[in-house]
Amino acid sequence: MTSEYSYLNLDLENKLRGYLFGTACADALGRPVEHLTLELIKEKYGEQGILEVPPDSPWTDDTQLMLVLARGLLEGAELKLPGLMDKIAESLVLWLDEPDLGAGATTRGAALKLRDGIHWSSSGLRSKTCGSLMRAGILGFIFRNDPEKLIDAASLSGRITHTHPAADAASVAGAYAVKLALDGVAPEDMFLPLLKATEGISDEFTEALKGSYELAHSNLGDEEALKKIGQGWYADETFALSYFCILRYPDDYKKAVQTAVNITGDSDSVASVAGGIIGARFGIEAVPVSWIEALNERGLLEEMVAPLIKKYLEVSENKHQIS
Q: How confident is the model at residue 3 (pLDDT cuts 50, 70, 90)?
């Protein structure tokens, strides 16, 4: 670290890197199997499915859009919510010029509306796909010490693209789970806080969250239980699948992520959400070194660490002064 950042809390840096690389490595592991059935995954990779990140792996739109949101936060996390949403909307418009890494029609359609001059309060589409959830975790880092703003920012920024209540609740849960992980809360103990944070937003999401918790504590095997939850194309299912995996393997990043990708469904999104939460809880040491080294653009993640920590400290200090 440079002398400019010598005062930073090393544990905070460790956990931020755990979140960033935990998300990206899980995303990269799921990328090759996203559109395959579990049967085809096993046929191609063996009975246990895909287990290792291939060399020179790219990530998908999940990590790309998390970084897009992060750039918006760097521009205006200290602002009141309307000003922050302006910055996030600008970041989404700029993203349209980046390579297409598989973004869904909802996110791209909303970004195109923003580029055409439609205000961010009207740009979202009534979709419950998982595009807003998969980018939301970074909000849990920046607003870790301001839970009220965290929840409001997760909801409002999510609705820039996805306005369905199930997607709204999932975005809040995705961000809040990262905050809880940074606070050292085990997945088992996240259940009630997540229910409270998302209370009243979406009955669909609440039922999915409860179902995930119950299945994780059942006698069903992983494969059978995951099939009951769904395939993860919809945000409530995506978070429920991710939460199941970290409940089953709360202390094992690698096993949780391997379980998350070997499904019939949105493998990379389910895994990236789960991987980001566990990475935030345990830090960069939880993520296999070989997986990190396999990322072909890992330097982009490293470049974000110092600016994000600086912004976190600014936001936390601003909150402290207001309080």
A: very low
Q: What residues make up the domain containing 55?
A: 9-317
pLDDT tens string 15-43:
999 999 999 999 999 999 999 999 999 99
Residue 313 lies in a domain: yes
Q: DSSP assignment of 235-251, as one string?
A: HHHHHHHHHHHHHHSTT
Are residues 1 and 8 in contact, defined by beta-carbon separation less than 8 angstroms?
yes
Question: Does residue 323 fall inside a structural domain?
Answer: no
**Structural domain tally of the chain?**
1
Amino acid found at 169: A
Closest CA to 208 of 187, 185, 191: 191
- What's the burial of 102, exposed, middle or buried (CB within 10 Å: 0-12/13-18/19+)? middle
> At residue 46, does pLDDT exceed 90?
yes
44: its two tokens? 């191609």
Q: Give me 35's structure tokens.
A: 């559109």
CATH at 220? 1.10.4080.10
In a domain, residue 322? The reply is: no
CB 212 within 8 A of CB 229: yes
Q: Give the C-alpha separation, 173 to 288, whole Å.
A: 26
Alpha-carbon distance of 40 to 63, in angstroms, equals 25
Nearest to 21 by CA among 311, 313, 308, 230: 308
Report residue 228 as tokens.
Answer: 């009951």
Per the structure block, which two tokens stand in for 34? Answer: 């996203």
Interval 177-194: pLDDT, tens: 999 999 999 999 999 999
In a domain, 2, yes or no: no
Alpha-carbon span 303 to 144, nearest angstrom: 21
